[in-house]
Amino acid sequence: MKDKQINIASTISTYTLNNFPNGVFITNTSKEIVYCNDYFSTELGWEPDALIGKSADIIFTLASKVFYQTYLIPTLLHEKICEEMQLTMINGKGLRIPITVNVKTDNAGLIYWSFFNASKRDKLYEELIQARETLEQQAEQLKLLASTDELTTLLNRREMKYRSILAIELAARSHYSVALIQLDIDHFKKVNDVYGHPEGDRVLKELGIRLKEFARKTDLVSRFGGEEFLILLPDTNKQDAILFCERLHQLIGEIKAGDYYIKASIGLTISRPDSIFKTLYAEVDHALYKAKESGRNRTELYNKAYKKP
């Protein structure tokens, strides 16, 4: 066992710093390079004669020289060692090479430098950044798909309910009212029966586009199911909401299904300080039912006197 250890030690003693796949050099108290291994000539294109006796400034970029003087030297004086610093070196052809450096000093003031070429590290960082951006885009796309209606690209039922609850709570805290509007295309089944479902889908899609263009950015507009749309108008009183509904009838009346201009019934309710989404939705649903019962193609404002259908 002892003979084996002696043989191994003897073999190792034949190796030098030139066998290591990284750069090694030593500078003195005057910043002059007093030693460099073969890595400089084989990998960086520097001949030893061009470096030995020269200032270490010759192999660093201006920014790295500043870092060298303002941080590395003071740190070495205090700590005797600096690890994993990111510097930029210039090779024998004048090209910039990012490096990761470990440095230590001794009592004689010599500084021992060991560094690795970090060019692949930067490429890895770029790949990681690209991968992160791709994941963020995919996450955003998934979030969009989970919250919107595929046909109309409006908010879907679940997202509308979630955002409406928050909007109504905010309105109560801020002491303003919101208007909740439920819109249902009259006799939509006939559109599908007479002109086919593709035409029905086109009508729904066109209505969705027009509603999105018509609404304010702060309004919540959704396809709540089938031919039913639910709209929430923040900071809106009764008069403004009624005017909004009148303009909605005009907007909807411009959409054709075949040769037929579609119409819609609209239910409307205005929030109170104690309103919650569940209550407001029940009210607007009753109002919509009343609008249909009263002949369709009209807006009905919720009235407490309504009896549950």
What this model shows, in words?
This protein is of the alpha+beta class. It is about 45% helix and about 20% strand. The chain has ten helices and twelve strands. The chain has helices at about 1-15, 40, 50, 60-80, 120-145, 155-175, 190-195, 195-215, 240-250, 275-295; strands at about 25, 35, 80-90, 95-105, 110-115, 180-185, 220-225, 230-235, 255, 260, 265-270, 300. The strands form three sheets. A five-stranded antiparallel sheet has the order 2-1-5-4-3, with helices on both faces. Helix 7 crosses helix 8 (about 195-215). The longest helix is centred in the middle third of the chain and has 29 residues, at about 120-145. It is elongated. The termini are far apart. The model has no long low-confidence stretch (mean pLDDT about 90).
Quick structural gist:
The chain has helices at residues 2-13, 39-42, 48-51, 62-79, 119-147, 157-174, 188-195, 197-214, 238-252, 277-293, and strands at residues 23-27, 33-36, 81-90, 96-105, 111-117, 179-185, 220-225, 228-233, 256-257, 260-261, 264-270, 299-301. Helices cover 46% and strands 22% of the residues.
Intertermini distance = 97 Å
Describe the main β-sheet briefly.
5 strands, antiparallel
Beta-sheet strand percentage? 15-25%
**Whole-number average pLDDT?**
91
Instruction: Give the strand order of the largest sheet, numbering strands 1, 2, ... along the chain.
Output: 2-1-5-4-3
Radius of gyration from CA coordinates: 37 Å
Q: Find the count of extended strands (DSSP E, 2+ residues).
A: 12
Q: Count helical runs.
A: 10
**Structural class by SSE content:** alpha+beta
Helix share of residues?
A: 40-55%
> Which series of helices and strands comes N to C?
HEEHHHEEEHHEHHEEHEEEHE
Per the principal axes of the C-alpha atoms, what is the gross shape? elongated
Task: Give the low-pLDDT segments.
Answer: none
